[in-house]
Specification:
By secondary structure, the chain is α/β, with parallel strands linked by helices. The chain folds into 2 domains: 357 residues, Glycosidases (TIM Barrel), CATH 3.20.20; 72 residues, Immunoglobulin-like (Sandwich), CATH 2.60.40.1180. Helix content is 26%, strand content 20%. The chain has an 8-stranded parallel beta sheet with strand order 5-4-3-2-1-8-7-6, with helices on both faces. Helix 9 links the parallel strand 4 and strand 5. The longest helix has 17 residues. The radius of gyration is 23 Å and the shape is globular. The chain starts with a helix and ends with a strand. The structure holds alpha-D-glucopyranose. Alpha-D-glucopyranose (GLC) binds next to loops.
Length: 441
């Protein structure tokens, strides 16, 4: 009973600071949203001292490594082969328009030169250099925008108290003060938005840690989103705020993200229900293999075809794809991932017109085909490439012309009262994606 009263009190109390009240995005922010909607493809990077253990970014929680034990990790994190220019070039060649990198993940270790923490790459590793700084410089040089991932949840900081649903078996955690933790996050965000030039967005994660019964249950703490989001928009009005809460966005958030699921899908268990979809720009995030952080034994590397389908499907749902790699502890990205990304880039150089600057197309997307659109041009991506006849139920639009995107050859089609039949003869089939350009009247 007592617990329920405390929760209710917190819920009532948190309403005030629950979102950025009266938020109206600035013109810079609206421009940034439009840029983002058109960008379609970004690189997600999960990198931290956990990469040394080669067991993903949740290793501290999953193996219940004590605070004292985990604190040894930074002393042998020395990524001497890290080259920011190489990463940025790789992303650019893959056709990516932006990079989102973890500045501090759930393990609480800051991968940048934070003055308000002693637990940083500069202070605690033999490497001593600020990788975020290097990356921000390289991005600027290449015209790639930089987004910063920031974990709300922290398994290391005692002030992250009350603790959340995860990390509770990690030995050595003490009880600190929540308000100090909020002040610490604000100080770190101020550093991130002051010392690294223009930051295209802040990508929050971990809100769900403080929802006792799962993502859809009420919060049991006050994240002070009002102050946090206002601070971000005050320091950099164009900076897009996103929060991986799996719920419909709050005031003060500028884009909506979907973890491993296409918008409206709930296949993974993180799924954002279709009732939670908003009209904000969308971003699907997913992994190039099975993990976010480097995992040595992860063999679930996606094929080039799977990666292209992921990107095409995201676009068909009106969303960007933020595709993740987990660099190794030496600072290199796994060579097979570098290769796959190069192949996606090759594909995009030929077919990018059907992806960038498009919106969700009028032909509903499913596993076999998706559509993207630019004004009166609809790009139909046939992903189920083995069939010679395709049917689009209920299609009623007036068609001006229909051609195969790659060869320019005319497509044979029939419109009936039931819908549209399209013929795709073997010689026009592409085993990754057969693209058809439909011009509407
Ligand atoms: C999850 C995980 C986290 C990862 C994130 C990326 O929320 O907690 O490890 O960073 O998803 O979407």
């Amino acid at each position: 009973m007592k617990k329920i009263i405390i929760i209710l009190a917190l819920v009532v109390f948190t309403q005030n600071t629950f979102s950025q009240k009266n938020y109206t995005p600035s013109q810079e922010n609206i421009n940034a949203r439009n840029w983002f909607k058109n960008a379609k493809f970004g690189l997600f990077i999960h990198w931290g001292v956990y990469s040394v253990l080669g067991d993903g970014e949740w290793v501290m929680n999953n193996q219940n490594i004590s605070i004292e034990e985990y604190e040894k990790l930074p002393s042998f994190f020395n990524p001497i082969d890290f080259n920011a220019d190489e990463w940025v070039k790789m992303a650019k060649d893959a056709g990516m328009q932006y990079i989102t990198i973890t500045s501090r993940h759930h393990d609480g270790f800051s991968m940048y030169d934070s003055k308000v923490s002693d637990y940083t790459i500069v202070k605690k590793t033999p490497y001593k250099k600020d990788i975020l700084k290097q990356l921000s410089v390289a991005c600027k040089k290449e015209g790639i925008k930089l987004f910063i991932y920031y974990s709300l949840l922290d398994w290391h900081d005692d002030n992250y108290f009350p603790r959340g649903r995860t990390g509770n078996k990690i030995p050595g955690r003490k009880q600190g003060e929540w308000n100090k933790y909020i002040a610490f996050m604000k100080a770190q965000l101020t550093e991130l938005l002051t010392n690294y030039g223009e930051v295209a967005g802040i990508w929050f994660d971990g809100d769900w840690d403080q929802r006792e019964g799962g993502v859809h249950s009420p919060l049991t703490v006050d994240w002070h989103y009002d102050e946090i989001y206002s601070l971000i928009h005050k320091l950099q009005p164009q900076c897009l705020v996103g929060n991986n809460r799996h719920l419909s966005p709050l005031k003060g958030e500028d884009f909506q993200m979907f973890e491993r699921d296409l918008p409206g899908e709930t296949k993974t268990g993180f799924g954002t229900k279709s009732s939670e979809l908003s009209s904000l720009p969308k971003e699907v995030c997913g992994t190039i293999n099975g993990n976010w952080g480097f995992n040595l034994k992860d063999r679930k590397h996606k094929t080039t075809k799977q990666l292209i389908h992921y990107l095409v499907k995201a676009a068909g749902y009106g969303s960007n794809l933020l595709l993740n790699v987990g660099p190794m502890p030496n600072g290199k990205i796994q060579p097979n991932h570098v290769k796959s990304l190069a192949k996606v880039g090759e594909w995009l150089r030929k077919n990018g017109e059907t992806i960038y600057h498009t919106t969700q197309g009028i032909i509903p997307s499913n596993d076999a085909m998706v559509s993207t659109q630019k004004g009166k041009k609809v790009y139909l991506h046939i992903l189920d490439t083995k069939k010679e006849l395709h049917f689009i139920k209920g299609f009623k639009e007036d068609i001006r012309s229909m051609t195969f995107f790659t060869t320019g050859k005319k497509v044979v089609y029939t419109i009936t009262k039931y819908g549209l039949f399209i013929e795709v003869p073997k010689e026009q089939q592409n085993d990754i994606d057969t693209i058809i350009e439909i011009r509407l009247k």
